[in-house]
From TrEMBL:
Natural source organism: Amphritea opalescens
Stretch forming the signal peptide: 1-38
Listed name of the protein: Twin-arginine translocation signal domain-containing protein
Keywords assigned by UniProt, alphabetized: Signal
Keyword set includes Signal: yes
PROSITE patterns the record matches: TAT
């Protein structure tokens, strides 16, 4: 390997070129497609993860959210199940129950059919566990707040009195 001396001038030149390239890419609108996201699971298998993601969408349906956000919630469940064998068993058996109510393929059902299947397991420990995890994991994700018109917490900005308690425009006027 050839040793290369890097002068201050060449370092600054290369750094400037790298920064300019990054800005050019950002301004061109090139981004990673949401469909390029791959759910990373360490404990659950992929089909179970996708079934849980579909369940999350049934529980908290939002047309403006891509599967990326639901998949991220399932990654949290997967991380929790890694150290909790009882949770892992509950998740695996719960997905098996979903599949048993849908000719062994919950994922192949339409959204309306999935909702009917989910209503059959409503109130079960599996349903309650997934629902209670997802409501927090999904709505605490600050990346989706703007999609709902939520400006975020007011406390860091002095509270609603300092920031404007009536500046929201997404609630209907009564």
């Amino acid at each position: 390997m050839k040793k290369q001396n890097l002068s201050r001038r060449s370092f600054l030149k290369k750094g400037t070129m790298t920064a300019a390239g990054a800005v050019a890419i950002a301004l061109s609108g090139i981004s990673i497609s949401p469909s390029a996201w791959a759910m990373t699971l360490t404990t659950l298998d992929h089909k179970t993860g996708k079934s849980l993601s579909a369940l999350c969408r049934v529980l908290y349906p939002h047309k403006q959210l891509t599967d990326v956000y639901y998949d991220a919630c399932v990654e949290g469940l997967d991380a929790n199940a890694k150290n909790d064998p009882a949770l892992l068993k509950l998740l695996n058996e719960g997905v098996q129950t979903l599949n048993s109510h849908s000719q062994n393929n919950f994922l192949a059902l339409s959204a309306e059919q999935q909702l009917l299947v989910v209503k059959k397991i409503e109130g079960s420990p599996f349903f309650n566990q997934v629902r209670s995890h997802i409501v927090v994991a999904l709505y605490n994700n600050d990346k989706i707040w703007s999609l709902f018109g939520y400006e975020g917490p007011s406390f860091p900005y002095g509270g609603y009195l300092e920031r404007g308690f009536d500046d929201i425009d997404w609630l209907p006027n009564h």
